[in-house]
Structure prediction request, 143 residues.
Amino acid sequence: MDEFMEMAMEEARKGLAEGGIPIGSVLVRQGKVIGRGHNRRVQAGDPMAHAEIDCLRNAGRTGSYRDTVLYSTLMPCYLCSGAVVQFGIPKVIVAESETFPGGPEFMRQHGVEVVDLHLPEAVQMMTDFIAARPELWNEDIGK
Prediction:
């Protein structure tokens, strides 16, 4: 696991420790982290506080995102995939999409390179969380 995905995993673990959903994200430009965040829907009482959105908020205004890479522990949903497309982020690297398929084809249709690492550690973290808190997970994915 590379250092940026490890940082995203740290963010996911932080969210879980706070009583939230374990999804983390990191935004990188030229080998440097410019933003990081985690799902804060529960902690902030904000349905829009997905990990990728939190990460982008923490990165702040950067002028352009065209030279960035977004790392996420879970395949981005359509909300977050839309943010990727809207801001022109050219590449998204995810730890896994087994527990949630997200919107990879939507991103690809808009020219985004999507890389799925299929990391067992990330799958296990989400599988454990979904088993322990199915009601919270279902709320997060809109079921």
